[in-house]
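Below is how a single chain appears once it has passed through the pipeline. First comes the sequence as given, then the structure the pipeline wrote out for it. We keep one example in the README because the format questions we get most often are answered faster by looking than by reading.
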Amino acid sequence: MKYIIMCLIAAAVCLATGWLLTALLNRKGRFSGPVRILLSIAFAVLLMAAAAAGYLGIYSHADEEAFAALDSDESVQVTQVTNGWYFDGPGEDAAIIFYPGAKVETEAYAPLLHRLAREGEDCFLVSMPFHMAIFGMDRAEDIIQNYDYDSWYLAGHSMGGMTAALYVCDHPEQADGVILLAAYPTKDLPDQVSLCSIYGSQDGCLDHREYDQMHWPADSREVIIQGGNHAGFGNYGMQKGDGQASVSAEEQQKQTAAVIKEWIDDAR
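Resulting structure:
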């Protein structure tokens, strides 16, 4: 919701600025009414494009530990694939498709997914256009079509979780469950889909009012990581507006992986 409000405000400011620039150029009254309207719109479009480029060009970067988690080891083979990374561990029957949070470098979630793969749940980390999952909501479809797993789970952090849930709402037959990390769906999840929701007790970014209003399918599980915050699910540092965590990101991810592993095992 906050992104929609921000876009509406930005559009209004750009339209007002476009009108003002046109008025300044037309101080001698040289332009007719239709020309003034077209100039105002043209200025507004250029300003919105410049603002969007500036906004989307700023994002949180993954740290060195995150990039280190992209290296293969004795238990997990990490491969760069189209639109992301594939973490192939000892598991064979189920896989998780993970959508990153908004304006966060994709690789920041590599430590969490490497850990999950090592514990038996293969993972796909999906890169998104402009680091915004909403622009690549359907990227799970190519993965599901090209890899052979008995069970698929869509997962994501923050906006990534919301987008993953939206994909499942539109394709309920493709997923066995949804894993939300500090996220909530903006549409009701189908009752036949299982839900695992995890967030940190110190999260300062999650909209709890919206979260509390979401529809919970019959098979749902909620876990609160004590001492965890919003940014702790990835390795990208502090996030504006977030609470101060009393556990490390590594510990938060360790507990998160354990919850997800247990939840998927219970579904088998």
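The first strand starts at residue 77 and ends at 81.

See the next section for the split statistics.
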